[in-house]
Amino acid sequence: MRGGWLVYKCRKCGKLDRSAHVPDVRRALVSIGVDGRTPREWGNWSGLTGMHYCTEAVGSIKSGQGAMIGVSDLISAEEDP
What is the rounded distance in angstroms from the CA atom of residue 46 to the CA atom of residue 22? Predict the structure, then answer.
């Protein structure tokens, strides 16, 4: 059992997001594949998609709109060293 980060990539701006840490990377991926989310006993859950606040999206800051919301997809997981 090794903890690590779930890595998401934003569809709008392409930025990688490593903000979801899980106590067991392999169990997280299996649970997401089977149930669509991480185990309930872990509290806050992660799934196949997430939300990302794009501050680097084309035209978002230049137009004065501030951050735009993008959809992010789970692309990988990285175990802690």
Answer: 9
Residue 43 Cα to chain centre, angstroms = 16
Do residues 32 and 74 lie in contact, with contact meaning Cβ atoms separated by under 8 Å?
yes
Low-confidence ranges of the chain (pLDDT < 70): 56-67
Distances (CA, A) of 55 to 2, 6, 46, 63: 32, 21, 22, 12
CA dist 49 and 66 (Å) reads 22
62 vs 68: CA distance, rounded Å: 12
What's the pLDDT tens digit per position in 3-24? 999 999 999 888 999 988 999 9
Query: For residue 43, what are its two tokens?
Result: 């509290």
Check: pTM over 0.85? Answer yes or no.
no
Q: By CB neighbour count within 10 A (0-12 exposed, 13-18 middle, 19+ buried), where does 8 fall?
A: buried
